[in-house]
Amino acid sequence: MTSYNAVPEGLPAPEDDGLAGHLGGLELPIIGLPSTDGRRIDLSSLSGRAVVYAYPRTGVPGEPLPEGWDEIPGARGCTPQACAFRDHFADLKAAGVEHVFGLSVQDTDYQKEVAERLHLPFPLLSDHRHELTHALRLPTFTVDGTLLLKRITLIIEDGAISHVFYPVFPPDRNAADVLAHVQALASR
Known about the structure:
Pfam families: Redoxin. Keywords: Antioxidant, Disulfide bond, Oxidoreductase, Peroxidase, Redox-active center. One of its GO terms (molecular function) is thioredoxin peroxidase activity. This protein is α/β, with parallel strands linked by helices and 188 residues long. The protein has a single domain (32-186), classed as 3-Layer(aba) Sandwich (Glutaredoxin), CATH 3.40.30.10. The chain has helices at 78-87, 89-94, 108-117, 131-136, 174-186, and strands spanning 32-34, 40-42, 49-54, 97-104, 124-126, 140-143, 146-149, 152-157, 160-165.
């Protein structure tokens, strides 16, 4: 049985394909995304610092992963990444992050299961219509005919992208890397 709680050893690391090079400094479009807490979130209208970690998809324990999932560089590790942001949530808030969100193209009902199962203290956002994905030209890949987001983390300051983590690997270390970045900003 597959464990979703840890990143398996030996996964292929993603390489920087240049698909996120245009994102730094970009102002976000006005797009309301449904969230697991019942609100519609427009990232462009948020004040302060927000962290948005985008991930391909979450699996459900007991259900198989897509064929070849572990061979796709950067695909595996959504649950460990979410758990790391959960575990670093208080530290991120203490370092000046006002908002934390996970983002995928899965619908909100699907996302609610993982948000509840993992006890996430922040909402997950659904871009199931690919509006934000297309507007920002976020890096994507296709599996079994489904367009998914590549793993990327955006630091957003007052509606504009101030920093991009891409590619993200290993995913379970992403939250610590983000925390170190925002702590460095706070010490300037």
